[in-house]
Amino acid sequence: MQDTMLVPPWLEPLLNTGFFSVCRTHGDAARSECNMYCLDCNEDAFCFYCRSSKHKDHQVIQIRRSSYHDVVRVSEIQKVLDVSGVQTYVINSARVLFLNQRPQPKTGKGVSHICEICGRSLLDPFRFCSLGCKLVGIKRNGDASFTLDAKNEAVAAGRGEGISSRGVSMSSSKEEGELREGTQNDICPATPPPPPSTARRRKGIPHRAPFRS
C-alpha cells in the first residue's frame, strides 16, 4: 500500500517497456518508430501516427535515446513525477534523465558521488542515476517518493527547465527530434563552453621589394 502511494501505477510498466521498434500499423511511414508511451492507457509503446489516432487527448510522454539508452526530458516527466534525487544530464541542449540504470566498469578511486542502488558514478550530489534506481530505493527504504504534491505539481507545470540548480531553459518546438542516437561525449553537466583557441595564425608569405637598378 505504501509503495502504491509513493509510485504511480504506470511507472514500472513504463520502465519495462521496449522502445524504438517499428510500428506494425505504420511501418512504411517516416516517423514509425515506437517512442511514445501513454500514461492513461498504460500499455505498449506506439508511434507518432498512433498518438494522433488513438491517444489524442491522453497524457503522453516521448522517449528519446542517447548512447543506445532510453532518456526522457526533465521538462516532460517532472509534470507527472517527483524526480528529485535523480541525476540529470544535458544532451543537445536539453536536460534529460535516464529511465534505467546503465552498466559501467567498476567505479574508480576518487569518485565523490555514486548512485545509492547500483554504485554508478554521478556528476553531482544526487542519490540515484535513473528513475529505475529511484524506484528500487523507494521499495527498499521508503524514504523517497515519485508523488507530486499540489504545490510541486503547480511549480513543475509552470517551468520548462530541469530540477537542478544548474538547469537550463528549453524550447520544445525548436529541439523536437534532436535527441536520438548520441555518443557518450553528448552527456555533460551544464558547464560553459571552452575558451577559443589562442594558437597564432600563420603569417603570410613575405614579398621582397622590387629590385631597382
UniProtKB/TrEMBL annotation:
GO molecular-function term, one example from the UniProt record: zinc ion binding
Comp. bias regions, Basic residues: 199-213
InterPro entries for this protein: PLATZ, Znf_B-box
UniProt-listed SUPFAM superfamilies: B-box zinc-binding domain
Compositionally biased spans, kind Basic and acidic residues: 173-183
Disordered: region residues: 159-213
Domain B box-type span(s) in chain numbering: 18-63
Top-level taxon in the UniProt lineage: Eukaryota
Pfam families: PLATZ (PF04640)
Protein name: Protein RGF1 INDUCIBLE TRANSCRIPTION FACTOR 1 isoform X1
Species: Coffea arabica
Higher taxonomy: Eukaryota, Viridiplantae, Streptophyta, Embryophyta, Tracheophyta
